[in-house]
Amino acid sequence: MENQFLCPSEQNLGGIGFFEGYTHLGSLGFFHDKVDDDLIDNIYVELEAVEGLQFGISKTKKYGLVVRILENSSDKLENILGCVKNTILRNGRYLL
Questions:
Q1: Which of 42, 56, 87, 95 is the most exposed, fewest CB within 10 Å of its CB?
Q2: How many CA atoms lie within 13 A of 47 on its CB side?
């Protein structure tokens, strides 16, 4: 679980370590015992193809990954996260 407390009157949300000029942050966590570097690489290649996209992918200590994306449009953010989900599902070994 992740918690964020943002208070624009007390924090410079445009500064380093916050949203750095973006208005939206999207996160997608995926946990499965077969998550591997190939999946992370495939997601990276897909996101890298989106011009100007700011993102990061982290492999969790065990059985998972987290993708974070900064954007200025919730619709675009939702579409990109949907593409990440589809990349995961394209490989049948992640199905329950």
A1: 95
A2: 23
Q: Hey, where are the domains in the chain?
A: 24-94
Question: With bands split at pLDDT 50, 70 and 90, how would you rate the model's confidence at 7?
Answer: confident
Q: Which two tokens stand for residue 93?
A: 């070994």
> What class does CATH assign to 24-94?
alpha beta
pLDDT digits (tens, 9 = 90+) for 32-65: 988 999 999 999 999 999 998 999 999 999 899 9
Integer angstrom CA distances of residue 57 from 21, 25, 40, 45, 81? 20, 13, 7, 11, 12
Residues 6+ apart with CB under 8 A from 38: none
Portion of the chain with pLDDT greater than 70, in percent: 81
Which distant-in-sequence residues (6+ apart) come within 8 Å of 90 by Cβ? none
